[in-house]
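Example A, followed by Example B.
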Amino acid sequence: MPGVDFRQLRTEIPMRQVLDALGFEPTRCTGAQWRGPCPIHGSSSPRSRSFSVNVDSHRYHCHRCGSQGNQLELWAAVHQLPLHAAALDLCRALHRDVPWIHRW
């Protein structure tokens, strides 16, 4: 089975699109820095700001559960999938072609 070009996937799919697909509603936005309830551990308060994401640098961090990473790692954490399966699932959810690596 061919591999997934994770670098290309992270380049082509912006963090904003992943957040939209997850239904993330920020409670506070300061430029590219957004805060809100964590989609990973399911913050109990809709006004929570434990989850911080920079939509320009494509990085997130939850100050409560400690999860952090890029947009693909966020998708994997929310859906409790390994990275390869998360890449396939994310492409399917966003109606995108999977960036396959055909040669090693």
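Example B, a separate protein, is given below in the same form.
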Amino acid sequence: MAKKLTSVVGIDIGSSTIKLAELRLRGGAPEISALGLAETPEGAVDHTGVYNSEAVGDALKALFSECGASVGVCVAAIAGQASVLVRTLEVPRMSPTELREHMQWEISRNVPFADSNVVSDFKVLPEEDPNSPNMDVVMAIAPQAAIDTIINAVRRAGRACAAIDVEPLAIARSLQTSYDDLADKAICIVDLGHKTTAINIYRNGKLLMPRQIPVGGEMFTKAISDHLGISMEEAERMKVDKAVIPKSAIEASRNLAADVGFGPMPQSVPPAGGETQGFQAYNPFSDQPIAANPFTEPQPAPHSFAAPDQPAVGVPEPNPFAAPGEGASAEPSAPTPNPFADQPTPTGADQPAQAPAGGTALPDHNPFEAPDAAATGVLPGDSESIRLFNAYSATLDEFVAEVRRSIDYFRSRGGDVDRIMLSGGGTRLRGLTEYLHANLDLPCDPYNPLERLNLNDKKVAPGYAEEHAQEFTVAVGTALHIFFD
């Protein structure tokens, strides 16, 4: 139904903000005629999905009016651990009739919800090799109640819902439209939201691997709040206004990654029949309820990224980014200087600083002080940024580790990744793209869903679009539903 429309509003209802993107086809090309962003009503949405359609509907109605979106038909994205399951399957090549029967069986055995009354759909993905004996199919399953909640919210806002979309496919449409020059590359889109992060890998418009992890921007805010003993509201302001990953920390991560030699996870040899053995211990995408299932609490990767003669990542060795006392050895030893400590490094005007008894001489400067203000936005000696980095560095490293796990798992199954692109409101943390690049040794760029799209400057201020572009990825992708067959 939605693909026959010439104008539509894409809706992305997040746990922190609601985003609208109004799209019209002009001369066969998509044009963004309105963009709107507003805070989600408190308590109306969480990581499991939307559960207060009245509050969300009222917020949508106000946002439509505020941003000037006048189109009455919408495509809304559904998300949340209790609201939708999206999975890519490889199945033998078969006729459309056989595929429908097969997918009904696949859907019935993959329902993860307590509510058995579900809505489902599937789509054959674009083929890379038409001679392959198999084909890839993406399927989506959602409880009827979750679908009804979103439809009711849109109706309360005075609009009609033409289709319900899923976030991974919305992002795929955006990627095809705005970055078609990267079509033959394997792109990992990391969509960092408020409570969760989607890590999806695409090539040639095809969703190769979807994954959701329970790490979001709120965890960074909470880390700052707990570390500094301030409210979540104040911590959020500090994160947005003052938090910058220091250039020196980026360089330290790059050096560590080069020394350790991060690479793909070890692969087991697949026996005859194509089934791969040895993945159950750490497969985060298994259908079985094992410890590393992404729909349960995340578990540490049991493999090591350490190179010979190097300490394994994740074991209790001294961490250059840890707070004092973390990861200490059981045997007494000289304290390791914390390069991100809140207190200034003791130095003398005429003599080098003295180390504690039994230790080594401390440097006469802070080696992790950001020296390049133009590149980092941090003036030399900006202790506030260092103090904030201390607060959220553990969360940051957890986030990086989850991205690495996803990419390494994909590599272990024969794939590879050419580039990482960051989207979502959580990625506004300055220095995040550089930090990921340094840790994973892959090109990393901010994702702009408005790239190559025309903007109606009568309704969309260019400065506003540029500032918030990464937050509109899903909203724009759902609106592009009418641009694709």
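On Example B: The chain has two domains: 2-179+451-483, 181-327+367-448.
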